[in-house]
Amino acid sequence: MLCFPIYSSLLAVLVSDPHSFHKGVIMTDKDIISADTTLEAARVQYDILRKMDISDRAEITFRLCDNMRAFVEAGIRDRHPDYDDNKVRLALMRLTLGERLFREAFGNVEIKT
Fold first, then answer.
1. By C-alpha distance, which of 72, 103, 51 is closest to 3?
2. Which of 12, 19, 57, 78 is deepest in the core (most CB within 10 A)?
C-alpha cells in the first residue's frame, strides 16, 4: 500500500538536510514546527511522540497516510464527478507514483488527476 509519509520521514529528511524544508515549516534546533504551531505546543507534541513506542508511532503514521489518501481521493472525486472507483484509484496512483512510474505500470492509460 502506498503511503504519504508524514512524521518520521519528514523529520528525518528535514533534520538531515536543512535546505530541503518547505514554506510554512520553521526549523529550530532539532525540531520542525508548522507555521501555525507555537514552540511550546510543538515541544509537547514531540515529547509525546518521543515517549511512544515504535508500534504506536507506526499506527499513527498509517492512520495519517489513510487520512491523506482519503483526502486526495475526495479531491479527485470533486474534480471528476464522472469517475468510477477504478478511475479514482488510477488517478490516485498517478499522483502517488509520478508520471514515469505510472506509465511504466499502466502504459498509456489516459486519466486526469
1. 72
2. 57
Q: Tell me the mean pLDDT per 10 residues along the chain, length 113.
A: 44 43 50 77 86 90 93 96 96 93 92 90
| pTM given for the model | 0.62
Q: How far apart are CA 113 and CA 89, in angstroms?
A: 10
- Report the alpha-carbon distance of residue 61 to residue 49 in Å, rounded: 11
Predicted local confidence at residue 28, as pLDDT: 54
- Cα separations (Å) of 90 from 11, 23, 66? 29, 29, 16
C-alpha cell at 60: 499513527
